[in-house]
Predict the structure.
Amino acid sequence: MVHELDTFFKPKTIAVVGASRDSRKIGHAALKNILISDYQCKLYPINPKEETILGLKCYKKISQVPGQIDLVLISVPAIIVPTILKDCVEKKVQNVIIISSGFGEVDNHELENELKEIIKKSKMRVLGPNVMGYKNASIGLDASFAYGTPRKGNVALISQSGALGIGMIYLANNEYMGVSKIIGVGNKIDIDDDDLIDYFAQDPDTKVIGLYVEAVKNGRKFMNSIKKCDKPVLVVKAGRSKAGARATASHTGSMAGSNEIYTAAIKQAGGIRCRDLVELFDMAKALTGQPPAQGNKIGIITNGGGLGILLTDACEETGLTIPKLSTKTYKEIDKILPDLIKPNNPVDLSADAGFFRYELATSALLEDPNIDGIIVASVHGGYARPEEFTGAILKMIRERKLHEAYKKPIIATWVGGREYEDLVIDLKAAGVPIYPSSWRTARAMFALYLEGERIKREKK
Ligand code: COA
């Protein structure tokens, strides 16, 4: 069945009201982004004074555009927006994005309510006001005024803050994390987080959904959409502190609500609450690249005892456990260790561990039914050879097909400097979830465990 937001994300006809020849204006940037998108659609600039903009024939009003319009972007001063919105209703436009600011977020609730009244009786879906628009990387359409092209991938990002949404694109690119769609929701007079979660739940290009939320308009609908969604939903809910809640009120004109209630409700709905965007990205990388963990028993492999202990503490504090090795695994790993070292969990391969020790230890843990997930760690100590560690990880993950039967996630941690970082970038580019901190690694593994639990609950 075609979702009602399908024409919103895949419009065949788009008009930009407030399109301008002036390259400093947002209406110019929005038109240009659509024009240069690798996407085929009819595009109409709307401006009462111009004949053509960026080589496109310009129309004075929405009503003059021939045929059906699937999506209108509005970038005119707030006071003119109600008139334009009425034109859109009259023209039976299907979807609208109101980029313009100057509504509830600056206490202009009267004007915002006027917009709500105008759209109340129509079937038109409206995003905003006070938004950047969206970038649909799955099909190559950029319906926003923001610079930046996300890598194509499987994480859908929803942001109540436009600037943060744009920042997320660059962060995602830096982390080699691919995005399916990224969308700003702003003041949410109509299209809300729950609508988008429902849409992304059935979007074949999306595997994981991540949200930055300041306030939820309808808590019940929001939680129900997370509950219904059979994909992981990661939520950064801002305004945790009293001062933070005050700041959300002046940002998008909304109430942050009780922090504890949000934490409990998101958990109950089956979502994962992340502390910040970096944690959201860490978890998203693990969830898109690795199978969920079938339980919380984790095996740790390291070439440095200290890093092994830090990871053990972080895992245990997070809610994971580090069980003792089975006799079979103990014997397997004992064969590859220097005489003076005895196998344990964390498995300390010792400072001079190379490719084969890493590879064989990982294989032994994959075989161990008492281990649900594996963390492979390396510290760039005196003897360590980063290429051998990263080579072993890459081999393990590249050969994932071979390991699919085990249904166990493998993620990695590293501690080192510049020369190590270059290799880590190669790993990230190959889709390997690798983190520079024991805590971040443990949290990413915890997300894989929670996802495994969610799937088990769903199957019951
Ligand atoms: N129909 C179509 N175009 C119209 C119009 C109408 N009824 N009335 C005016 N316009 C044209 C203007 O003439 C202008 O074109 P021009 O450059 O050829 O003169 C264009 O629309 C834009 O209007 P202008 O008055 O120049 O506004 P602006 O571009 O300086 O600012 C906004 C408009 C929407 C960008 C601004 O009001 C705003 O809200 N900025 C913040 C946006 C934002 O940050 N959003 C949230 C992001 S997260």
In short: The mean pLDDT is 93. The domain at 1-131 is CATH 3.40.50.720 (Rossmann fold). The two ends are 26 Å apart (CA to CA). The longest helix spans residues 438-459.
